[in-house]
Amino acid sequence: DADVTQTPRNRITKTGKRIMLECSQTKGHDRMYWYRQDPGLGLRLIYYSFDVKDINKGEISDGYSVSRQAQAKFSLSLESAIPNQTALYFCATSDNRDGYGYTFGSGTRLTVV
Amino acid sequence: DQQVKQNSPSLSVQEGRISILNCDYTNSMFDYFLWYKKYPAEGPTFLISISSIKDKNEDGRFTVFLNKSAKHLSLHIVPSQPGDSAVYFCAATLGGSQGNLIFGKGTKLSVKP
């Protein structure tokens, strides 16, 4: 099993729908992150969490919300999806003692039509 | 304003030759730098890193050079192999409790047989 698992891998949804992307990890890491990748724009941070009670906005949090249900689970929600949220979404984790290196999931490709 | 810049969106090299990927940064407080490699349909994976107190770190065919005065780092791959074809992301962090990684836009490396 992968250390960081994202579900679903692919999703097509309609404008205005609510959608949740899920992330779970088996690494025992405290820190979890959600990134978005767009062509030519690299990886941009949406939200991050340093522990279950700690949630922080990243660079591009508008239109998104998150929930840290447990140390191992961090979900990203789009309350009302819009086409410009079409992107590749990555979840990542890192160790609290060494926050430098991230372990990424395989990504969720989301298309909003 | 972009704090980590990869100004070359793509690079093509011949198998066996050297690949040099460049990265510039603007924040002199960054204390740790990393390179990630990403294949299609997969999440980024950690490749190599360097602390700001060093100017070189080597791992097999991969060497990262840091020039703090120029706020510039580079990744050298020698010799390049077709399996090295991927997108390479440069990342930097302030470290400690602010250990979020800030990524560049990526450079797509193509190594031709």
Structural notes for this entry:
- The complex is a heterodimer of chains A (113) and B (113).
- With 113 residues, chain A is an all-beta fold.
- Chain A has strands spanning 4-7, 10-13, 19-25, 31-38, 42-51, 54-57, 64-70, 73-78, 87-94, 103-104, 108-112.
- In chain A, a hairpin with an 8-residue loop joins strand 9 and strand 10 (103-104).
- The model of chain A has no long low-confidence stretch (mean pLDDT 92).
- Chain B has 113 residues and is mostly beta strands.
- Chain B has no helices and eleven strands.
- In chain B, the strands form two sheets. In chain B, strands 2, 4, 5, 9, 10 and 11 form a six-stranded mixed beta sheet that branches.
- The radius of gyration of chain B is 13 Å and the shape is globular.
- The model of chain B has no long low-confidence stretch (mean pLDDT 93).
- Classes of the chains: A mainly beta (113), B mainly beta (113).
- The interface between A and B is medium-sized, with 24 and 24 residues.
Brief sketch in words of this structure:
The complex is a heterodimer of chains A (113) and B (113). By secondary structure, chain A is mainly beta.
The radius of gyration over CA of chain A amounts to 13 Å
Q: Indicate the radius of gyration of chain B in whole angstroms.
A: 13 Å
Query: Which bin fits the share of residues in helices of chain B?
Result: under 10%
- Major sheet attributes of chain A: 7 strands, mixed
Approximate strand percentage of chain B: over 45%
Strand content of chain A: over 45%
List key phrases describing it.
heterodimer, A: 113 residues, mainly beta, four-stranded antiparallel β-sheet, 11 strands, 0% helix, B: 113 residues, six-stranded mixed β-sheet, globular
